[in-house]
Specification:
Elements (H helix, E strand, L loop, with lengths): L45 H29 L11 H20 L3 H25 L14 H17 L10 H27 L4 E3 L5 E2 L4 E3 L19 H4 L3 E7 L4 H19 L6 E6 L17 E5 L5 E3 L4 E6 L2 E6 L16 E2 L3 E7 L4 E9 L6 E3 L3 E2 L4 E5 L3 E2 L4 E9 L5 E13 L5 E10 L3 E4 L3 E8 L2 E10 L7 E6 L4 E3 L11 E9 L6 E11 L6 E16 L4 E6 L4 E10 L8 E10 L1 E10 L2 E10 L4 E11 L6 E9 L6
Parallel strand pairs: 1-3, 3-7, 4-5, 5-6, 10-12, 11-19, 21-27, 28-34
Antiparallel strand pairs: 1-2, 4-8, 8-9, 12-17, 13-16, 13-18, 14-18, 15-17, 18-19, 20-22, 22-25, 23-26, 24-25, 26-27, 27-29, 29-32, 30-33, 31-32, 33-34
């Protein structure tokens, strides 16, 4: 046996040593990329939600404080009691500003949340009171007008968001950083608050000085022509014909378009100038300058010489002046001043006249040339005494009978006014008396009277509020036309500014001291959603008041729409059964069964029932009706209760049951 074959089977050979091959570097496996998932919008978490809410409400409070602060720094405060005291409004602005800055800072979250929640609840109560009282503006954004119902909605929304998203503790800041941020925020709030308060309390009525500059920050600029004598005309730079007045001799008349004394004075100047032209002895030209607010036409209804020039004061300021005021100029220098004798002595007030707490009094209808008296109570709710200076009146028809020289702190003073009605008719005659106040934050008090001189017709209510309606709905209202004069007046027809709103005038004379009910009908079919203010112009045969205007306010919502605003059954026979259909649609996405209930009410000569068939964004109403057995007029009302709609939608039913047997 050979050596190779002598090896036992199954015994392996000795392995020879082998060289190791180099190990190549293997890159690590890459991590799998997660798939991209688009996240849908989700409701914020409470901590995130409060961050958004506090920033929005903080900006809203700062905007309201800024707008009211600008108004207080430029306009006087008019009112009675605490609402007529400037520092009360200043404290309100400072509080809103401090709360807004606290919310924006993100510090003291729990305290800021409780303070904001309480504040907006109180704001909501106050707005509800103003809305129910009929105020046209909430007064919370200065000169920016916002309806109280809209402001109430914002307040309620703020309360709901604050209740939904309470704050969570801010653990991102340590105690040291939180303290530093709090101190810096308090310092900034203190600086801004002191500067803003000083600006709001420093208001006083602006006065036109003799050199033409305006002293004071108020929007109302008081003219004092008595101080212009011997000096260049300070009004020249504010009149559109100012350059012409600087050359030659002029007679200048300042007037209001609604002042009867001014119109008489203009006519006298025009007649005198025409006579001088005929005699060829013209010594001076005449300029009549209208003080805003302007009338419907620029040129007053006068005739006269070609040398009469008309001009206007610029409307960027609210000028307060006694009219008519006559000035004579020579090369732009005022040589003489003639102001109306408003300081004339008047009879004392009757003892049984009660003082008026408001700053405006409406006499209503007064006869031309009649004499009237009224007393105003001026309250001083501050801690310092007031000293009343020399008063000024816009018209010689209005003057002060008696006025206290001093109103003690916390007390009141009675200011008695005498109103001598003009001799010519004037509808909506409005003039004011200004009382300068020294010693308190309120720098002046304006007392205003309103009267319809020689215009006997009055409309109530004005405006007529028809509320909120849906598309296709009809609504009816009533106006009362009263005649306070001594002669009967015939209303002839009316013309509306909005065609959807019409007044149905009966050509029936209104006796002296009588009244006439004027039905008003509103149809919303084909109109666009929104808020509307319509004007009804009622034509009459009264030469002193040929047109009587009445306002109508309403709003239209596009959430729901009716296929018909009235169910007209037309002619029926006694005992006839008939059917009528009506559709209600909605544009709301989450409507569901939006017709909550439907019922027939007030049926006259009619009986029946209504069936509602709901659908997707549409509901069909089937009316099964039976006429009465005897002839007569058919009347009734279909009342609908819709989801999230505050008022009941009423659809009238109308028709006539006729007797076919009658000839």
């Amino acid at each position: 046996m050979s050596r190779r074959g002598s090896r036992k089977a199954g015994v392996p050979k000795r392995a020879l040593p082998q060289r190791k091959a180099p190990v190549a570097a293997v890159p690590p496996p890459q991590a799998a990329q997660p798939p991209v998932i688009r996240q849908r919008w989700r409701w914020p978490r409470p901590s995130e939600g409060f961050a958004v809410v506090r920033i929005v409400l903080g900006c809203l409070l700062l905007a309201a404080a800024g707008l009211k602060g600008v108004q207080l720094s430029r306009q006087p405060v008019v009112g009675s009691g605490l609402m007529g005291v400037r520092w009360v409004h200043v404290l309100e602005v400072e509080y809103e500003m401090a709360l807004g800055m606290l919310l924006l800072s993100g510090l003291l979250r729990r305290m800021a949340w409780w303070t904001a929640l309480t504040t907006f609840v109180l704001f909501g109560v106050w707005m509800l009171r103003r809305a129910l009282a009929g105020y046209a503006s909430c007064g919370c954004f200065g000169t920016l007008s916002l309806h109280p119902w809209t402001a109430l909605t914002l307040d309620l929304l703020a309360v709901m968001l604050l209740a939904k998203f309470p704050p969570r503790p801010n653990l991102a800041l340590d105690a040291g950083r939180r303290k530093r941020r709090l101190l810096s925020g308090l310092t900034a709030a203190l600086i801004i608050g002191v500067a803003g308060g000083a600006a709001m309390l420093s208001y006083h009525p602006a006065v036109l000085l003799a050199d033409g500059s305006i002293a004071g920050a108020g929007e109302s600029v008081v003219l004092e022509p008595e101080t212009w004598k011997g000096k260049p005309l300070p009004l020249a730079q504010y009149v559109d014909i100012g350059k012409q007045l600087m050359v030659g001799e002029w007679t200048v008349l300042l007037y209001h378009h609604d002042c009867p004394q001014c119109r008489q004075r203009i006519a006298a100047l025009a007649d005198g100038l025409a006579e001088m032209e005929k005699a060829k002895k013209v010594t001076a030209r005449v300029a009549i300058i209208e003080i805003p607010p302007f009338g419907g036409e620029k040129d007053p209804p006068v005739t006269g010489a070609d040398l009469l020039v008309r001009g206007r004061l610029e409307a960027s300021h609210k000028w307060f002046a006694s009219t008519p005021t006559t000035l004579t100029l020579k090369d732009g220098v005022v040589t003489s001043v003639q102001t109306p004798d408003a300081q004339q002595k008047r009879a004392p007030l009757p003892a049984d006249t009660l003082p008026i707490a408001n700053s405006v009094y409406n006499f209503g209808f007064v006869k031309p040339g009649s004499h009237h008296r009224v007393a105003f109570r001026v309250d001083n709710a501050t801690g310092s005494d007031w000293t009343v200076g020399k008063w000024q009146s816009e018209c010689p028809c209005l003057g002060v009978v008696r006025c206290p020289a001093r109103i003690p702190a916390g007390g009141a003073g009675i200011v008695e006014l005498a109103f001598d009605a003009p001799g010519e008719p004037a509808e909506g005659y409005s003039k004011a008396v200004m009382l300068p106040i020294a010693g308190g934050p309120q720098q002046s008090v304006a007392l205003r009277i309103i009267a319809n001189v020689g215009t006997p017709l009055a409309v109530s209510p004005d405006p007529l509020e028809l509320g909120a309606l849906i598309l296709g709905e009809q609504r009816r209202g009533e106006l009362t036309l009263s005649n306070h004069g001594e002669q009967a007046v015939l209303p002839m027809y009316s013309s509306p500014s909005v065609p959807a709103c019409t007044a149905m005038i009966r050509r029936e004379r209104i006796a002296a001291g009588g009244r006439l009910i004027v039905p008003v009908r509103l149809e919303t079919a084909g109109k666009k959603p929104g808020a509307y203010k319509a004007t009804l112009s009622i034509q009459t045969d009264n030469p002193a008041q040929p047109v009587v205007r009445a306002g109508v306010t309403f709003s239209i919502s596009g959430d729901y729409c009716l296929s018909a605003g009235v169910v007209d059954l037309k002619a029926l026979i006694p005992g006839q059964k008939t059917e009528a259909t009506l559709d209600v649609t909605t544009t709301r996405q989450d409507a569901g069964p939006f017709v909550q209930s439907a019922e027939l009410a007030g049926l006259d000569h009619l009986a029946g029932q209504v069936t509602v068939t709901p659908g997707e964004k549409k509901a069909s109403l089937m009316l099964e009706l039976t006429a009465a057995a005897e002839p007569g007029s058919v009347a009734g009302m279909l009342r609908l209760h819709l989801a999230d709609w505050p008022r009941v939608v009423e659809i009238p039913l109308q028709g006539q049951i006729v007797d076919l047997k009658s000839p």
